[in-house]
Each structure stands twice: as structure tokens, then as C-alpha cells.
């Protein structure tokens, strides 16, 4: 059975059991800030078990894209660990429970897939007699094939810091003794490869709070997850996941392109396995809009990409290579995930650009590491972390190179620094509720803000922590942050208190208001909720403007210019899009002109609700990676722009006022970022700029022709600089001749001189003058400034090979505690301790004598 056949077969089986087939959600969890990635099939269903949202169905089945990095170091070494994987699952929300889940799982494996039951073992939670009895009496498994295991094996969840969890029952497949670790204790649940877990049947019956308390779930049920890759290994009779039709075609592509061997050398095989796994993960994450970067999800993906690049070097691939595998990955998955085909070129170019960028920093990192190793007999945790953090240099590569030279890496100190960095990153994650929810009434809140900005409503649930009150309203006029648009702000007035709403966001299917108490004493009940319409109007101006910008970019640059992300705030926005070079000034002017013309045309902004199929027929653009329901909202601006969008917009384009692009930069490899302002914020910016120009005009004494006046000042400065340089050159010649005269008298080829007040340029001129006249000279020139030594070393042409200046400067700088670098004939340093200059001079002279 092929992978495509398996996906369809699984979904069809549970469809016959009255399950609703639910498409895979994005790898970016929409409303769970405690998760970086979608890590299990149940993530999109979490609110359905807790009862926070109305049930759209009681039974569901899906094939979910997942990403986990907890076992990153095991990927490629074992036959079963991966970063990206697909999870086949069936789910029950207050409907069937353990018996049906177990019976149907057994039916599917034995009667549909025809797996020989003699190879199957199961485990249950140690106290779960119900599940044990179902396996033993209903299914008929002998007691020696049913294991009772503890919570480390058979209690699952929650995904994140809170949510549904419960006991589970796992199904294992015995691959045979040749895969065993050989221990007498080897059995299902062992860490070796003999008994891979095939299917995990989780029975969510508790809701774990942030504090760890487990409360009964309103809709207890079933959450099963079966690794598509592991199941295929069994069905295709392979001895490794990497030999199935999900991986081996990628491995074959590696062998075809680079003529490398597979299956002969274990070390090479591990590297190739990791490359195949990681490029697959990169294709899917970039396809879902996660671009490698230095922040959050992007940081994880950059680490995965760089790990793969490093392992390419292990098999003799020194150049950018991963991007060449993208077409094969897309081809393998186009049947199940057709949207990947649309983005193949973009994904390829992003990966290629990231590879090329890292290969440059990799070389710099190698030079830095070589320098560190020369200075010390160990690589400190600080040095290893600097290489990792600044150059993207994997610590494994640092350890590998250090080991070759017999030098130790302080791994413990490195890991401590890494953990601190992770804690800082976690602390920056915003709006993860810390307190316990006090539930007054069930419900997730209904957004009514498209039509109303003031409503009388009631509080459904709330929690209080750190002077913050977070609450869910029955009807909420506040827009929750989504699609890049920031959440609404405003006021909530109770009987005897007032709350400031600082932010509104989604959390596990609920619209949550993040508030502080401004007056009175908080008490739940009926309230009046009012949106800050000034802030909302400015946000709407910026949001409608992003739609105009998106259309203008595509018309100006081409259809490849697709939105990759945005941040929309009152009066300003940031817009990321696919493009592989900076915009020219002429292109920016054209784009601004197109947008402002559409603003002046005062085009109505229509918001239409329709089916997804109808929207696609209209030509509405969808943001890749976003999940859309059967009914969607379309925002249409004449015949210029039409997109699927649930955000807050204006009634017509004229309300934007005007738009000005303020900056552009590279957001990531192959992704450009534009920042722009609109409306009142643009007016304030223009007024401030005019005020600045007037002030400049007053300083220059020119009411008009300011630009010409600035040019005149620049010309005068250039003339003064030229005169100054000529004077410096004359002084440098005098100083240099004095130093040469002194050296001749002392019959020394080492020149050392301290200057009282001189700049770096002057010292360089002196050094050049001496080097032109003497070929066998070495000089140290220095000046003390603000309690630090700035110094320069120069070397005559005849001594450059024996005493390269850039090596001498490092040795001297090490003694004084500063830093430095340069070229073989001249190098500069700074930051040295004045108390150690004599020691450094003595070291230099002794070195030359030897």
C-alpha cells in the first residue's frame, strides 16, 4: 500500500463509522500561544473536549501535519524519529469512549490492513482496568501481550501547558530480534527499535489547569494518533521509516544528484537520513508561511536548515544543495497537499537563499573557532554559545572540530547559556493565561464587532493574576488578533468598576480580553463593552491599505509577489512578501502612486459572506497556510483587489487618507518587508518632517534652495577634509622620519612609539610611510584614550610571511585584554589595559629576537 492509498484508506474507514473528515490545520496553531507548532492531531480539537465552544460534530477523523523537535538529536540515528510527520487520527467529543476506540483500532489493523496479530502487543495505563479488560475479554488478547505501564508511557497530555489529557493505550509492532537492544528487559515500551509504537489511543477525560490540577472534562472522549511513517514501514515490509515511499525517493534524489552511496557506511546513512527528514520539514513549514529567521518558529526552522547544511558537508557536499531536493518532495506530496505545488518555486528560493547565507557565516564561524582554539586549550561555554548564537554554528560542529584537535568544549556552560536564552524567549511569548479560569457559563464568546462597537453583554469566564483580568464575553465587540491585525482595545464597564481592555486575542477557541482594573472592584456579571473606535479606525485604515499594497505589488513586480506575513497596527503596518531583490526607488514610487490613486478614487470596500467554492470562483486570494471553513468572508475593493479576510476594514478606500512607504528591508531569505504609514499617523509624520526641514533651513540660513545649501556645506566639508588629510600626511612624514632616525641609531628593526593624541588614520599613514622605505621592520604604534589602549602593528614586506601582523595583533591584544584583527602587513586593535602595555611590548620584542 502506498502512502497516498493509506491516507485515503484510513479516512474512508472512519467516514464509514460516521466520522467527519476534517482537513489538516496549519503547522502554526491558530489560538494556542503555548505551542510553537502543531505537534499532534488533537491540537485543533482541544476546545471541543473542554466544552469551550459549540460542537460542530461529535466524531472526527484527520491526517494532520505535525512538527516536533524534542527528539531532534535522535533523527536519522533511529529508524522511527522525525521532525515533520503525519498523524492519522480519529476523535470523539462526548460520544464513544474506550470500547469503540479499541475495537475499531483492532478492526482497522487486522481486518482492513491485514496485519498479522501475532506481531502486535498493547499497553494500558497501570490503573486502567477498563481498557485492560476490553483488550483481554472483548478483543481476546492473552495477558502476556497486555502490559500495564506508568504515566511516563501511558498517560498523555496536555499539549502545551494546559488542556485535555488522560490515560492511553498503545499498540506496538514487534519487528523481530534483529532490532532488539539485547537486554533481558527488552519489551514493548523499550527505547530500542524492536517494538515501535504504531497507534496511541488516548482517552481524554481530564482538563489539566495551568497549576497542574486535573478536573473532569465536560466532553470526555477519544484522541488517537498513528504515525503514518511508522505504519507504512510495516505495510511496505521495510526495516526503517527512511526506506518507505515517503523518504526513499528523496534519498534516491540525493544519490542521483551527488553520486553519494547509501546503505554502505552508517555515518553517511545517518547524514542522508537527516537531510531527507529536514528538507521535508522545511518544505512543509515554509509552505505554511514559517520563514527561517531569528525569532520563535523561524528560529527553530533556521536551526533545522543549518543542521542539514552541516550534515551535507559530512557527505562531501560543500555548496548549497537542499533546495535541489524541493521539487522531489513536492512531487511526493502533491496528491495529498496540492497547495505545495503552487508554492514550489518560492519554497525552493527561500531554502536556497538561506543555505547560501549560512555557508558564508559558516566560513566566518570556522575562522572564529580556529582563532579560539589557538588561544586556549578549551572552548568555553561562552565561546561555543557565541559561535552558535552569532554565526549559527551548531555546537555539534564545534565539538567535532575541537575533538579532532584534542580540545575540550565546556558543554555544560554552553547548555546553561542556551537554557537562559530559551527562558528569555519563553518570557517574551505574550498572552498565555497564567491564572485558573473561573467558569460562570459555558461558551467561547461570539464576535459581533462587524456590526456593533458597543454591546451590553455578560462575562462567561475569567481569571485574575498579576493585577491582570482576562475574561470571555458572551457577545464581544472586540476583534481578536488574527491575520496580522492587532486586537481591539477599549473599555468594559461593570456595576461598580471599569476595565481597560489592553488587547484581545484568541485562546483555545475563545475570544479573550486582556484587561486591567482602572476603578472600583471587579465582580463578574453583566457589563457594557465599548471598542476604542479611534484605535480601531486607524487599524482599519492600515488593514485596508495592506490589501491595496498586495494588489499593487503583484501588478508592479509580478504574480510571484505573494503575502508572507503582516503586522497591522493603528496607522501603520508591516507587510512581508515574496521577492528576491530590493525594490528600486522607481518601483516604490510606482507602487505608492497606484495605491494613492485607488485611495483618491474612494472605492467601496465590500465585505461578502459566501461559500469557499464561490469565493475561489470569484478569484479571491487565500493566504497559504490559513485554514478556512465552508463559509468565508471576502473583502472586495472594486475590480482591483479581492481576498479572503476576516479582519476589520473601512467602508471605502478614501477613508485611508494617504499612504507612504517608509522603509524596505530583507525580512528573511527571499522575503522582502515593507513598512508604511497611513491616515493620521502619516499626517503627524509629514508635519514632523516639515518642522525638521524648517529647523534645518534656519540653521543653514536659507528659506529656499535648502538642498543646494546642503550641497554647498558638503563641498566645504570635503575641501576641509582634503586640507586636513594633506596636513596629516605632512605630520605623518615628519613623525615617521623621526622614528626611522631613532631606529637607525639604536640599530633596531622593531619600532615602538606611544602618541599623546593621534587618530587611527594618522597612525596608518605613519606605518605606510615607514613600510615603503624599510622592508625588514616591525612596528607597534599606540595611543591611550579614555583609559584604553588603541594600537596598530605593521610589518615590512620581507617579514610578512614570518611575522604576519594579524597574528601579532591577536597575541598582543590577548595580553592587554583587548581585541584586534587585520591583514598580514597591518592590523589594528583596541580596548587594551594601559597597565599591561609594557608587558605586551616586551613580549613582542622577545618574539622578534627569537
Q: How does this structure look, described?
A:
This protein has 850 residues and is of the alpha+beta class. It has 5 domains: 3-238, 2-Layer Sandwich (BirA Bifunctional Protein, domain 2); 246-357, no CATH class; 438-531, Elongation Factor Tu (Ef-tu), domain 3; 548-687, Threonyl-tRNA Synthetase, Chain A, domain 2, CATH 3.30.980.10; 731-849, Roll (Diaminopimelate Epimerase, Chain A, domain 1), CATH 3.10.310. Helices cover 40% and strands 24% of the residues. The chain is built from 23 helices and 34 strands. The strands form 7 sheets. Strands 1, 2, 3, 4, 5, 6, 7, 8, 9, 10 and 11 form an 11-stranded mixed sheet that branches. A 6-stranded antiparallel β-barrel has the order 16-17-21-20-19-22. Strand 20 and strand 21 form a beta hairpin. The radius of gyration is 33 Å and the shape is globular. The termini are far apart.
Amino acid at each position: 500500500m502506498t502512502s497516498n492509498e493509506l491516507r485515503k484508506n484510513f479516512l474512508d474507514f472512519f467516514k464509514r463509522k460516521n466520522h467527519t473528515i476534517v482537513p489538516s490545520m496549519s503547522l502554526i496553531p491558530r489560538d494556542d500561544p503555548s505551542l510553537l507548532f502543531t505537534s499532534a492531531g488533537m491540537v485543533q480539537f482541544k476546545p471541543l473536549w473542554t466544552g469551550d465552544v459549540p460542537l460542530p460534530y461529535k466524531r472526527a477523523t484527520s491526517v494532520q501535519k505535525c512538527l516536533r523537535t524534542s527528539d531532534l538529536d535522535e533523527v536519522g540515528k533511529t529508524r522511527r524519529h522525525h521532525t515533520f510527520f503525519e498523524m492519522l487520527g480519529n476523535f470523539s467529543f462526548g460520544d464513544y469512549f474506550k470500547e469503540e476506540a479499541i475495537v475499531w483500532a483492532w478492526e482497522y489493523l487486522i481486518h482492513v490492513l491485514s496485519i498479522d496479530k501475532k506481531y502486535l502487543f498493547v499497553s494500558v495505563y497501570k490503573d486502567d482496568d477498563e481498557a485492560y479488560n476490553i483488550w483481554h475479554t472483548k478483543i481476546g488478547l492473552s495477558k502476556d501481550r497486555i502490559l500495564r505501564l506508568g504515566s511516563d508511557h501511558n498517560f498523555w497530555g496536555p499539549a502545551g501547558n494546559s488542556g485535555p489529557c488522560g490515560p492511553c493505550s498503545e499498540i506496538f509492532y514487534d519487528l523481530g530480534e534483529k532490532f532488539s537492544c539485547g537486554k533481558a528487559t527488552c519489551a514493548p515500551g523499550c527505547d530500542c527499535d524492536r517494538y515501535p509504537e504504531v497507534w496511541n489511543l488516548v482517552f481524554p477525560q481530564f482538563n489539566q489547569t495551568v497549576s497542574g490540577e486535573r478536573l473532569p472534562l465536560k466532553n470526555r472522549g477519544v484522541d488517537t494518533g498513528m504515525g503514518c511513517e511508522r505504519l507504512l514501514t510495516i505495510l511496505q515490509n521495510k526495516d526503517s521509516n527512511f526506506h518507505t515511499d515517503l523518504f526513499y525517493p528523496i534519498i534516491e534524489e540525493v544519490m542521483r544528484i551527488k553520486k553519494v552511496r547509501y546503505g554502505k557506511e552508517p555515518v553517511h546513512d545517518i547524514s542522508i537520513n537527516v537531510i531527507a527528514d529536514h528538507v521535508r520539514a522545511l518544505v512543509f513549514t515554509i509552505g505554511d508561511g514559517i520563514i527561517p529567521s531569528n525569532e520563535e518558529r523561524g528560529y527553530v526552522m533556521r536551526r533545522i536548515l543549518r543542521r542539514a547544511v552541516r550534515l551535507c558537508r559530512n557527505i562531501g557536499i560543500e555548496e548549497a544543495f537542499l533546495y535541489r531536493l524541493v521539487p522531489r518532495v513536492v512531487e511526493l506530496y502533491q496528491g495529498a497537499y496540492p497547495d505545495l505545488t503552487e508554492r514550489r518555486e518560492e519554497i525552493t528560493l527561500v531554502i536556497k537563499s538561506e543555505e547560501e547565507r549560512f555557508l558564508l557565516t559558516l566560513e566566518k564561524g570556522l575562522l572564529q573557532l580556529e582563532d579560539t582554539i589557538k588561544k586556549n586549550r578549551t572552548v568555553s561555554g561562552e565561546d561555543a554559545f557565541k559561535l552558535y548564537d552569532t554565526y549559527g554554528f551548531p555546537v555539534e560542529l564545534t565539538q567535532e572540530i575541537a575533538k579532532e584537535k584534542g580540545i575540550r568544549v565546556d558543554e555544560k556552560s554552553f547548555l546553561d547559556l542556551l537554557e537562559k536564552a530559551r527562558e528569555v524567549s519563553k518570557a517574551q511569548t505574550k498572552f498565555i493565561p497564567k491564572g485558573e479560569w473561573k467558569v460562570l457559563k459555558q461558551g467561547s464568546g461570539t464576535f459581533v464587532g462587524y456590526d456593533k462597537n458597543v454591546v451590553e453583554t455578560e462575562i462567561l469566564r475569567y481569571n485574575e493574576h498579576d493585577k491582570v483580568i482576562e475574561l470571555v464575553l458572551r457577545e464581544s465587540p472586540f476583534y481578536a488578533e488574527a491575520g496580522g491585525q492587532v486586537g481591539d482595545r477599549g473599555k468594559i464597564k461593570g456595576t461598580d468598576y471599569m476595565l481597560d481592555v489592553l488587547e484581545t486575542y484568541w485562546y483555545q477557541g475563545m475570544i479573550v480580553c486582556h484587561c486591567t482594573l482602572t476603578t472600583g472592584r471587579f465582580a463578574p456579571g453583566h457589563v457594557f463593552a465599548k471598542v476604542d473606535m479611534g484605535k480601531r479606525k486607524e487599524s482599519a485604515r492600515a488593514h485596508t491599505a495592506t490589501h491595496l499594497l498586495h494588489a499593487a505589488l503583484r501588478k508592479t513586480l509580478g504574480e510571484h509577489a505573494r503575502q508572507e506575513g503582516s503586522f497591522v497596527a493603528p496607522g501603520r503596518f508591516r507587510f512581508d512578501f515574496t521577492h528576491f531583490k530590493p525594490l528600486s526607488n522607481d518601483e516604490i514610487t510606482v507602487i505608492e502612486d497606484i495605491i494613492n490613486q485607488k485611495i483618491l478614487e474612494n472605492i467601496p470596500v465590500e465585505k461578502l459572506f459566501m461559500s469557499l467554492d464561490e469565493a475561489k470562483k470569484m478569484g479571491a486570494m487565500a493566504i497559504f497556510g490559513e485554514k478556512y471553513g465552508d463559509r468565508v468572508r471576502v473583502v472586495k475593493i472594486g475590480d482591483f483587489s479581492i481576498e479572503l479576510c476576516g479582519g476589520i476594514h473601512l467602508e471605502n478606500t478614501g477613508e485611508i487618507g494617504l499612504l507612504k512607504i517608509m522603509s524596505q528591508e530583507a525580512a528573511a531569505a527571499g522575503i522582502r518587508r515593507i513598512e508604511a504609514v497611513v491616515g493620521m499617523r502619516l499626517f503627524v509624520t509629514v508635519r514632523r518632517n516639515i518642522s525638521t526641514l524648517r529647523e534645518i533651513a534656519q540653521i543653514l540660513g536659507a528659506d529656499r534652495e535648502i538642498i543646494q545649501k546642503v550641497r554647498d556645506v558638503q563641498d566645504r566639508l570635503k575641501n576641509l577634509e582634503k586640507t586636513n588629510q594633506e596636513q596629516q600626511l605632512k605630520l605623518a612624514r615628519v613623525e615617521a622620519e623621526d622614528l626611522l632616525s631613532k631606529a637607525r641609531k639604536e640599530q633596531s628593526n622593531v619600532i615602538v612609539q606611544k602618541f599623546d593624541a593621534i587618530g587611527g588614520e594618522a597612525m596608518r599613514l605613519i606605518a605606510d610611510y615607514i613600510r615603503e622605505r624599510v622592508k625588514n621592520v616591525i612596528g607597534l604604534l599606540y595611543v591611550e584614550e579614555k583609559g584604553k589602549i588603541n594600537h596598530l602593528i605593521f610589518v615590512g614586506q620581507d617579514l610578512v610571511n614570518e611575522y604576519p601582523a594579524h597574528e601579532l595583533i591577536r597575541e598582543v591584544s590577548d595580553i592587554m585584554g583587548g581585541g584586534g584583527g587585520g591583514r598580514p602587513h597591518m592590523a589594528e586593535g583596541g580596548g587594551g589595559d594601559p597597565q599591561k602595555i609594557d608587558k605586551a611590548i616586551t613580549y613582542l620584542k622577545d618574539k622578534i629576537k627569537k
